[in-house]
Amino acid sequence: MKTPVVTDQAPAAIGPYSQGIAAEGLVFVSGQLPIDPATGAMPEDVAAQAKQSLANVKAVLEAAGSSMEKVVKTTIFLADIADFAAVNEVYAAAFPQPCP
Fold first, then answer.
1. How many domains does the chain have?
2. For the whole model, what pTM was predicted?
């Protein structure tokens, strides 16, 4: 059985997908854009974008009763590999060791 995860603390799904799905003790979070759910704004700075995207992931996880500490897999897409260091710094701050 699968259960949709819905929260107003992350951007609403705008297509035929869910913010997240909980199934058999696992939580699957959809890709999260760096949109602030309160304002609908997207930061221009890549580090701020990474921070907002991860805050959105955290909100979906928490709505499902989970947390960043339990994440085992992530995927991050970069438009420019030159942004790797900035995004990596934000990522490292968002997850406790051992990082996913």
1. 1
2. 0.94
